[in-house]
Amino acid sequence: MCGMWRTRSSVLILLFVALISLTCVILFYTASPNQLIKWLPAKSLSLGNSWARGIKLMKEYPELDSILQKADMGNKTVIITTLNYAWATPDSMIDLFLESFHTGEGTSRFLNNLVIVSLDQKAYNRCTSIHSHCFILKTKGIDFSGEKRFMTDDYLKMMWRRIEFLRAVLEMGYSFIFTDADIMWFRNPFDHLATDADFQIACDRYNGNPTDLNNAVNGGFNYVKSNDRTIQFYRYWYSSHKLYPGKHDQDVLNYIKHNEEIRKMGLSMRFLDTSYFGGFCEPRKDFTKICTMHANCCVGLKTKLHDLRLMLTDWKNFQSLAIQDRLLQEPLWRTPMQCKI
Ligand SMILES: *[C@@H]1O[C@H](CO)[C@@H](O)[C@H](O)[C@H]1NC(C)=O
């Protein structure tokens, strides 16, 4: 008698639990993430589970998910650049950057996959007038709109904010090519990117060995696959900025790349050949090979703009040559010119 009563009450409890769970499931699938955020107590957002993390990301970066979806190449891959107003004024960096996609070989289609992340309202306004995938990344209390000279306090904050943001993109499940806007796109970079590496990065100077950690990296161009290893790596990279105050992301990466922690993560790193992913640090690469060219080893907006314009002209001249002439006469880059100083 007593045993039967116990059984019946357990059945009731089970039914009750089932009903509650069902309600939760229905709520979960019908409510929008924004509504859910309001219901969740703030503390639960710090939980390590992926659902809470997803909600937290959407709260931190509203609209980002839908922009990434629109820019997706179809395999959860996007191209990302960041922009502040100094680089966004008419006839400035962003215009040269976009022009390079149009004049490159087979690169104009990548404009459909490019997300321009603006760091201030003015840059965002300009973006929306010239491009279809614009995202604004605001930072409380900091105005990123002016020209940020290399290594000033604000410049550093801007660089580190970028690393934090890219980690969020990876967490949302998107792989990306990050490209500075002072990089000209001349050919399809995927032709020279490995498909089996987690993190591939351009170099200021390349020593010929794609897996040698001693290559001097350049943070302006990288291809990162979204997975647990890269997310962990970006967290580690970002958190390392506290250990090296006054250093930017690229320097810190050069310090930490040898660390045991990264080896333990199992992260596979590749260093990109400057013959394909070139720049002014190792100038005058072969026109017939080059995919991207970076105005690196160059300080100052005016100087960069001068040489990038010249570079685009040189590229157009090269393209206007007949195929046989391209092989006959060695075409020459006139750049770096002002950047050399
Ligand atoms: C994703 O798509 C692009 C464009 O079609 C392609 O070039 C690239 O190799 C793809 N990436 C992967 C990891 O399949």
List the helices and strands and how they pair.
Elements: H1 2-30, H2 33-39, H3 50-60, H4 64-71, E1 77-83, H5 85-88, H6 93-103, E2 114-118, H7 121-130, E3 134-136, H8 153-171, E4 175-179, E5 183-185, E6 199-205, E7 216-224, H9 228-239, H10 249-256, H11 260-265, E8 269-271, E9 277-279, E10 292-294, H12 301-320, H13 323-328
Parallel strand pairs: 1-2, 1-4, 2-3, 6-8, 9-10
Antiparallel strand pairs: 4-7, 5-10, 6-7
Helix pairs in contact: 2-3, 6-12, 8-9
Bound molecules: 2-acetamido-2-deoxy-beta-D-glucopyranose.
How would you portray this structure in words?
The structure is a single chain. By secondary structure, the chain is of the alpha/beta class. It has one domain (45-340): Spore Coat Polysaccharide Biosynthesis Protein SpsA, Chain A, CATH 3.90.550. It contains 13 helices and 10 strands. The protein has a 7-stranded mixed sheet with strand order 3-2-1-4-7-6-8. Helix 2 packs across helix 3 (50-60) and helix 6 (93-103) runs parallel beside helix 12. The longest helix has 29 residues, at 2-30. It is elongated. The model is unreliable at 32-47 (pLDDT under 50). 2-acetamido-2-deoxy-beta-D-glucopyranose binds at residues 73, 75, 77, 190, 195.
